[in-house]
């Protein structure tokens, strides 16, 4: 079931087109990646999904229906710029936000305590936001976005500024919500997070969709241009092989850039005549490499 559908959505500001015909579907229990450099149209798209601004063309459907005010009860949003009041207690403002989204006081408080325990910080219940570190303020923002168990969740740079331990904690929580059926629209510039969490993506560039589909299928459209070679000893003459563009030596072995796939087998044969090969891989392109190829060097 499609929780969220965008059909040829357009947004214009005077003579500037901010979003030009974006179409995508986010299913129940899916994390969908929305990617793009600054100014690509991601934020405008998310604001239209949230009902903060209205599209000038196309349609946005929620569980098959157009936007209405009752949708606030089934949607959650974690913005890149955090918005909790610094001098108000965690419990007071998150419970208030939960009630605004249709929960009664008892259920709101119970849900808040669940999430505080889930993040192993039950003592933050009576603390003011300004008393917490930036990372913990971010976790409180995440709780505010999900306290009412939304069916549709919009995450904009959810992991920015977090240390690796808290990134893993939030990622596991996002996966938990996905497994419970939440539809998640996930925007980030960290491609490794997209590769781990998302199956389907859309990449926007200058208001237009330039790449869309399943990550595995998208990668199949692009040539394999790197070989990793791990050996016991050194290997000579790799640079001279046909199709080899560049050889980089690192602590784990060689990263070899090639212009044609056929060069890979010649690399392997050459290495095996000189030393023991421990690892050989014709690497598929990373999402980051695909992003740079389609959008340019200006990543966020």
UniProtKB/TrEMBL annotation:
Lineage, opening ranks: Bacteria, Bacillati, Bacillota, Bacilli, Bacillales
Pfam families for the chain: ABC_tran, DrrA1-3_C
PROSITE patterns: ABC_TRANSPORTER_1 (PS00211), ABC_TRANSPORTER_2 (PS50893)
Keywords, comma-separated and alphabetical: ATP-binding, Nucleotide-binding, Transport
InterPro entries: AAA+_ATPase, ABC_transporter-like_ATP-bd, ABC_transporter-like_CS, ABC_transporter_ATP-binding, DrrA1/2-like_C, P-loop_NTPase
One function term, GO molecular function aspect: ATP binding
Organism field: Paenibacillus xylanexedens
Domain ABC transporter: 4-231
Name of the protein this chain belongs to: ABC-2 type transport system ATP-binding protein
Similarity remark: Belongs to the ABC transporter superfamily.
């Amino acid at each position: 079931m499609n929780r969220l559908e965008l059909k040829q959505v357009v947004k214009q500001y005077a003579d500037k087109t901010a979003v030009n015909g974006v179409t995508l579907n986010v299913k129940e229990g899916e994390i969908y990646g929305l990617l793009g450099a600054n100014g690509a149209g991601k934020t405008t798209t998310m604001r239209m999904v949230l009902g903060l601004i209205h599209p000038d063309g196309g349609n946005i459907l929620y569980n098959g229906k157009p936007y209405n005010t009752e949708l606030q009860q089934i949607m959650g949003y974690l913005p890149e710029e955090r918005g909790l009041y610094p001098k108000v207690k965690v419990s007071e403002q998150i419970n208030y936000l939960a009630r605004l989204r249709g929960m009664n006081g008892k259920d709101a408080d119970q849900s808040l305590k669940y999430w505080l325990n889930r993040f192993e910080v039950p003592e933050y219940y009576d603390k003011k936001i300004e008393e917490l570190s930036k990372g913990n303020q971010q976790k409180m923002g995440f709780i505010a976005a999900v306290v009412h168990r939304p069916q549709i969740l919009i995450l904009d740079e959810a992991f920015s500024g977090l240390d690796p331990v808290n990134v893993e904690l939030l990622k596991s929580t996002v996966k938990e919500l996905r497994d419970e059926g939440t539809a998640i629209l996930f925007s980030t510039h960290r491609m490794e997070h997209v590769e781990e969490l998302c199956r389907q993506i859309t990449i926007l560039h200058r208001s237009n969709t330039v790449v869309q589909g399943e990550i595995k299928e998208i990668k199949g459209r692009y040539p394999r241009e790197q070989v990793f070679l791990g050996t016991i000893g050194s290997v000579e003459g790799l640079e001279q092989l046909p199709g080899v563009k560049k050889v980089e030596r690192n602590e784990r072995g060689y990263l070899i850039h090639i212009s044609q796939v056929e060069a890979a087998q010649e690399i392997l044969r050459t290495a095996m005549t000189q030393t023991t090969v421990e690892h050989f891989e014709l690497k598929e392109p990373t999402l980051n490499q695909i992003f740079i190829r389609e959008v340019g060097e200006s990543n966020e």
